[in-house]
Amino acid sequence: MATTTPSRGRRRAPSRMTRAAGKAAALQKPRVILALLLLLALTSVMLLDGYLRSEVGGDERVRSNASSSKVPDSVIDGGPILSFRNGEARSRSVPEKTIALTFDDGPNPTWTPQILKILEENDVPGTFFLVGSMVSRYPSIVNDLVDDGNEVGIHTFTHVDLSYQGDARIQREMAQTQLALAGAAGITTTLFRAPYSSETDAIDNYSWPVYKKLGAEGYTSVFVDTDSDDWKRPGVSKIIKWATPSKNKGASVLFHDAGGERSQTVEALGTYIKKMKAKGYTFTTISGAIQQADAEEQEANGGQAAGQEAGQAPGGQAPGGQQGQGSQGGQAGQGGSSLQAAHRTATGTTLYEGKALVAAVAVAEWTVPGLATGLAVVGVAVMGRFGMMLILARRHYRIRNRRRFSWGPPVTGPVSVVVPAYNEKECIANTLKSLAQSTHPIEIIVVDDGSTDGTKEIAEALGMPNVRVIRQENAGKPAALNNGVRNASHDIVVMMDGDTVFEADTVRQLVQPFADPDVGAVAGNAKVGNRNTIIGAWQHIEYVMGFNLDRRMYDLLRCMPTIPGAIGAFRREAVLAVGGMSEDTLAEDTDITIAMHREGWRVVYQEHAKAWTEAPASLKQLWSQRYRWSYGTMQALWKHRKSLTDKGPSGRFGRVGMPLVVIFQIVTPVFAPLIDVFTVYSMIFIDFKASLLAWLAVLCVQLVCAAYAFRLDKEKYRYLLMMPLQQLAYRQMMYLVLIHSCITALTGGRLRWQKLKRTGEVGTPAGVS
């Protein structure tokens, strides 16, 4: 029985499916690019977060005990404020009975606000030397700090010892901190304090060139002459004692508002300020101290100018690239306060780049912790799934392989086997020959879906008496299956792909569950026939572990989501009752399986009914197939979303199966790349050994599950040697495919039916090893 093939000389207008296919193909490249861009964005966010936390590009080296033979004595013995004019170093000291409170390593969201509150309560300003990465993470604190009248300086972006760094790294540390300040508070600054610096006598031959270079760029380097050593946490009384200048001297006093637990600093600060005020001390910023020192020197010189504040000429160019607004008379660059004379108003590209930096850091600050939480959830879900599969698969195997287990009276009546075929000239002969060996009575219906390669002629030329070939215009696999079901002569219909071969006993095993009148459909055990290549071996592992182990679990839970297209059997009446194979989705097998659940039928897995199928032989074909599967599954789940509210037996899939499929086949795989991304990140930037051991531990768990699945299916273990490589390459590709499918679904795209290139290498089952 066949339709007439249209005349070759007659050109037909493109069909609706052809036009839709063209549109879908045109949309695929942008979606692939979007998927790759999302992966790139994730990687960039993680690298930015790692850089902020000194995990990426961090350098913990600290130089000590180096020679200072090249450092001028006037600098080593001079005051704590060092500036340069025309290449000449100039040191200043804080005037007598004056204290410039300085705070290093902030801002910190816990301690800095408490210190600001104490300063405000005592009407005292401070100078905060800020770490750029912390500024970008806590911009609001910096903005409040500046608004309160305090002064800020640079403490590098990642708190590295600049004496170990090259010119490019030094420039980057300074420029990035200026951008962070611009984004946080709309300013830049001319003040600088090097990490790990202390008094001027600690300047050595390696750090001296750094100070000269920065001085030439307009920076004023600030040291200390009185150190509270609060970072040692010696107790409040000692912090106060060590921070007190001797003999009424003025001092640049060092405290810390970050870098560790600072409760003692907070507790000591208020008491210290009151004590020093009682002794007649006044408090100022570094710029205030410079101006007082210059004023005293000017007075001593009979009114002649002594130099400018913060090492910056009036109206000169500031290090941050902004126009200086300070002046000798004390006009500051921010708010007009002489206590903030080192500040410059950020404008132009500096301002906008700074805001962009702060915004990017804010995204990273929210994204990375969210990803870490997602990673933990995914890890728990993956381990939970493995545990559930092992327990339920073992129970399924023990139940179905008991000596007394039976579905009921043997099913011996003839059944119809429907074989949809589109350009299957390489495979159709092997498929039909394998069916000819069936030990169960069958009729074979080959539905040729408009093949142009002679598939129909090959099937007819075999001359098999129980084979009917039905010819139809190309309409897709669902239409071909529906045509076969309508023409089937028997109550049970077996469906298979045109590239699949059955064992002699496959059909008999497949139909036995229909002895139970509640069973409406049966899923068989699909095997990869072309498994002797790397790609084939990877898919073989996936079929045995991922598909068949899953089906055992879903069978026991009575929520089987998919009957494989390669091997499945249905009650004809059940198929017709749900409207046949739908063209609404690209996963017609998943679609009809869920539909049958909703009609109250039971769907089971028959492990002993084996079919050998030809898996994609190239990465391109594999991508196409899995892309269609993933997208089709999403379509089917969305189509049947109302199953979540179905009641009674028909709602079991919605209550149990739908959540499991969504969690284990969509959500978990979509976020599973986080495990790999974080693992690679940790190996490179954090702890290679610990990360490698964690990855190997997960691999061992997967190997145990895979080995057990192979044992249940009586497969050879040698293919498991490919599993480590599968985890490194194949699994990543499957993740990208799923992400690609999710993007397609979210953007409302549609895919066409995709025909894979066949080789016909899967022959009769007897020849498969």
Automatic annotation (TrEMBL):
Chain intervals for the UniProt region annotation (Disordered): 1-22, 295-342
Biased composition, class Gly residues, residue ranges: 313-336
PROSITE patterns recorded: NODB
Domain of life from the UniProt record: Bacteria
Coiled-coil parts of chain: none
Record key words, sorted: Glycosyltransferase, Membrane, Transferase, Transmembrane, Transmembrane helix
Pfam families assigned: Glyco_tranf_2_3, Polysacc_deac_1
CDD domains: CESA_like
InterPro entries: Glyco_hydro/deAcase_b/a-brl, NODB_dom, Nucleotide-diphossugar_trans
Sequence intervals crossing the membrane: 371-393, 660-686, 692-712
Gene3D superfamilies for the chain: Glycoside hydrolase/deacetylase, Spore Coat Polysaccharide Biosynthesis Protein SpsA, Chain A
Compositionally biased spans, kind Low complexity: 300-312
PANTHER family per the UniProt record, alphabetical: POLY-BETA-1,6-N-ACETYL-D-GLUCOSAMINE SYNTHASE (PTHR43630:SF1)
Recorded family membership: Belongs to the glycosyltransferase 2 family.
Protein name as it appears in the record: Bifunctional polysaccharide deacetylase/glycosyltransferase family 2 protein
